[in-house]
Amino acid sequence: MSDFLISVVAVAVVLGFMILIHEFGHYAVAKWLGVRVEVFSIGFGKRLLGFRRGDTDYRISAVPLGGYVKMSGENPMDAHTDDPAEFMSHSRWHRFLIAIAGPSMNILLAIFLLTAVYMVHYEYPVFLDKPAVIEGVKHDSPAARAGLQPGDRIVKVDGIQNPTWEQLQPRVWLSPNQPLTVTIQRGDQTFQKTIVPQAVTTSEVGSAGWYPEEPVIVGQLESNTPAANAGLKEDDRIVAMDGQPLVSIEAMIEHLQQTKDKPVDLTVLRDNQSLSFHLTPVLAKTEDPKEQRYRLGFLNKSETKVTTLPFGQALALSLETNKKYSLLILELAKKIVQRKVSLRAVSGPIGIAQDAGYAAQQKGWTPLLELTAGISLNLGIFNLLPIPILDGGVILSCHRGPHAPRRQPAHQRTRLPGRLRFPGAVRGYGYLQRSDEDAAGADGSAPLSNTFRTTTLVGTAASGGPGVGPTSPAEPATTAFVTVMLK
Description:
By secondary structure, this protein is an alpha+beta fold. Helices cover 31% and strands 24% of the residues. It has a domain at 130-211: Pdz3 Domain. The chain has helices at residues 3-32, 92-120, 142-145, 165-173, 226-230, 249-259, 311-337, 349-360, 366-382, 391-397; strands spanning 37-53, 56-71, 122-125, 136-137, 153-157, 160-161, 180-186, 189-195, 198-200, 205-207, 210-211, 216-221, 237-241, 244-245, 264-270, 273-279, 282-285, 292-295, 298-301, 304-307, 346-347, 419-420, 433-434. The strands form 8 sheets. Strands 12, 13, 14, 15, 16, 19 and 23 form a 7-stranded antiparallel β-sheet that branches. A 4-stranded antiparallel β-sheet has the order 6-5-7-8. Strand 15 (264-270) and strand 16 form a beta hairpin.
């Protein structure tokens, strides 16, 4: 099956399931409280097929990018009676329960899915747990201009003491073109520096230009590229380039930009054997249409730990992860409103389709389940925001009594999925490969667009053209998804 068809099928299943869960929450509580449900629709627009049972028309509609539940008496343009089955005839408490049921179902589903994943396959990049010790600094990057050096340890950032890479990276991504004060330990000295992460890729997330120690392991190979043509294989570990040890994919990327189209010699470990390869880098496009980079043509795979957790630990970690991501999502939304983070960080159904397609092609079900959990959480959190077209707007209006703004009529509501392309360094949602296709170079974070197809990033990974280079380096292989469902 082609990548396109896999993406179409995967996104249809993931979004359809998310919509079904969300709308079922509204539907079930409405029916339980005695509100008449006239339509339960997956998709919107023209009715394609379905059936009627009792008062409800259960249907699948033409545009599969959303869904809705239509309840009697919810349209403010309709004349309202004292019919107890109408939505607005019910108490504020009942309307609150109906409104919050959809987002609650999505949040609960995210917790359940991650718990299940952790019980069968808990995998995360090894370097995420390590202290934020800088392995390298990119030339002419914010970190370089601030005087930071390899070996420096970041001991405080944004109020976080002794951060790990998992804690540090979101602080940088959320601060494009904004001052960020860090406390540095260098030998016996401790001092403060202020850096201004530069906005990178078309998503305009922040990048400091530092990166951690992380082995270069070949992940997915791009066809008809130098790496594939030379005979590199997945899981090959590249330990040296042109005789110099490689400690990070970022170091490889920087070296390729310096040597340009000159052939390079790679020393590779494969099944405990040392092999040599001679390759000529190729210049190719990135996510930024103004930038081209020299690449070899593979995605970097993080070194990971794999284990299983008992139910209690899996549930506790799932709750912690979902809480952490929820706070990141809210902070990101706040910064978008404050115009501190660009709206270009938002992508739509096509981006989700690419991610779903990539996840569906990974080994096992856990990547797709993690992606589903991430989308479900984001859908739940965003629909709780106090915006009139969202469930949060309905919840906010419940305290105003019978004359409060009513739930927007179903024919005016659509749940259009969108995704904030935000690289999330929180284990639990994401993959373990990254691509350099969109890494704009500041801190090696993979682009934010196809984060899962190319790894995403962790981070994100957005790709702007045939990848011919190692994947972007220092970002953890996880991506935070923010799915906005507009009602």
